[in-house]
Structure formats: C-alpha cells, structure tokens
C-alpha cells in the first residue's frame, strides 16, 4: 500500500502545479496597483500644469515679447509700413477706409508714443477736392499702431502717405473712391 499513497501524493503535487496563479485586483504592492494610482495622479497633475501654462503663462509671455520695450523716438522707417482696408469704397461720404500705420524699431518692435500724420494727394492731377481724414488713434500705442479713417465725396484715386516727425514712411497706399 505504500506504493499507492506515494502515487496519490505525486498526483497531488502534479495537480497543484497545474493550477493557474490567482491575480488580485487590489492595491496590494504585489499587484502594482499603488504604482498605477501614482502614475494616474502624476498624469492628472501634469495635465493641470499644462492647462495652466497654456492659459495663463504663455499669453503673458507673448504679450511681453511683442510689446514695445524701447523708448519713444527709436524708430526705423525702413521697418515701418502703412496699409488701408478696404482699398476701394463708394464716394458717398459715409463708407470708410481704415488706414493703419505701424511704426517699428530696427528689431521689429512697435514704437509707442509717436504722433503719426497722414497726407493725401490725388493720384491723377486735376482732381478737385480731397478725402477727409478722421484720426482714431494718431499717437502710436504699445504695438506701434496708429489708426485713421478716410471718407470722401470726391470720386478718384488718392495716394496716402504716413509721416512721423516730418519723415515719410517708405511706402504709400492708394485708395479708390468710386
């Protein structure tokens, strides 16, 4: 009978080695649950920090970098420009063309506190009358921007130039009133 009990014990050992291990879903250190929770927490904190940077810090940095930091007067006409929009409207005295001048320094940053003047002359000699200029913001802001509105009851094309301290910007803009 000794052989029978030995055989049954060997069978029990073989059967026990065939049983699959039990996997626990608890937060025990053996299962790695605490590590998973830690990584989830780190991920949430990272997302909150990223949202904060994107919504609070980055806009402030962009404003700081694009804001004028130089003293009034340190401008470069070669980097400055003037444009109008739209370039053509009816000559009814009501429709407006917005003319914007940007005064920049040598590094391309806006120059604040400078008085900008617009001059208008007819493109074709012999045109009688000139459009009217309304100063919306003739002193440059922190971005070097000055804004004007132009209306006319006189049909024709007119060349607009911008000046600062009597010096003319290198480019002009042609406006059409029809």
Notes on the structure:
With 178 residues, this protein is α+β, with helices and mostly antiparallel strands. The protein has a domain at 77-177: Immunoglobulin-like. Helix content is 28%, strand content 30%. It contains 2 helices and 8 strands; from the N terminus they run ααββββββββ. It has a 4-stranded antiparallel β-sheet with strand order 1-3-6-5, with no helix packed on it. Strands 2-8-7-4 form a 4-stranded mixed β-sheet, with no helix packed on it. A hairpin with a 2-residue loop joins strand 7 (156-164) and strand 8. It starts with a helix and ends with a strand. The model has no long low-confidence stretch (mean pLDDT 82).
In which range does the helix fraction lie?
A: 25-40%
Structural class: alpha+beta
* Tally of contiguous helical segments: 2
CATH homologous superfamily grouping of the domain at 77-177: Immunoglobulins
Order of strands across the widest beta sheet?
A: 1-3-6-5
Along the chain, the helix and strand elements come as: HHEEEEEEEE
- Main β-sheet: number of strands, strand sense, barrel status? 4 strands, antiparallel
Averaging pLDDT over every residue, what do you get? 82
Count of beta strands: 8
The CATH architecture term of the domain at 77-177 is Sandwich
CATH topology of the domain at 77-177: Immunoglobulin-like
